[in-house]
Design brief:
- The chain has ten helices and no strands.
- By secondary structure, it is mainly α.
- It has a single domain (40-253), classed as MetI-like (MetI-like fold).
- Helix 5 (105-115) packs across helix 6.
- The radius of gyration is 22 Å and the shape is globular.
Amino acid sequence: MASALQKTRVTLLSLLGLGVFWAVIAQLLGDASVLPPPSEVWSVTLKEWHSGALVFHTTQTLLRVALAFGLAMTLGTLLGIVLGRYEGLNRWLDPWVVFFLNLPALVVIVLAYLWIGLNETAAIVAVAFNKTAMVVVTVREGVRALDPAVADMARVYRFSALARVRHVLIPQLAPFISTAVRNGLAVIWKIVLVVEFLGRSNGVGFQIHLYFQLFDTAHVLAYSLTFVGVMLSLEYLLVQPWEASARRWRKAAA
């Protein structure tokens, strides 16, 4: 408990230091059109919150992130398990994985809009498709790292298929899946903003595009930092605790 409180205190102080640094730089520049001070961005954020626009557009972006993330994690985890278990199949499909891993997100987004249209389906597919290969690589390495002794123990005790998945596969893959989750959230929400910037009529990316055209830096920062705050909350409240829980069994075994 003490270490958790200390970690929280350090995190908050670090973020406060970032805010102070921002305020100092803004003061030195002396041009709010280039870099507005934190107080001005906070004022804009409150104004957009009370109008309902901030909540609406942030919610739209979160929905797209959730759908694309869920699709990418599901497909990537299943493919990663299959490729990790069957080396022959992996030899044939590994070039495909490398190809899609290195395909630029912008290309995928543009092609999705050209082939499917400027709609929600194209937006979700483009983001999920771009992330799936990263999940495949991470989970595949996790499957390769499975301890065969644990699998042998499960056979000796005649575990059912469901019990093997629950007590053998998932605990050992959990650290790799948590890594894929963290990287996925970090990458997917950025790609979603690009998708919205290029071809949606709502969302944080759309708002950034709108205020970019108006040269309104304060609004751009207000929407950007609000969504960064949401993602930081998910990281510290959900991802890191789950990751710590996933690694606990290894520490106990050691």
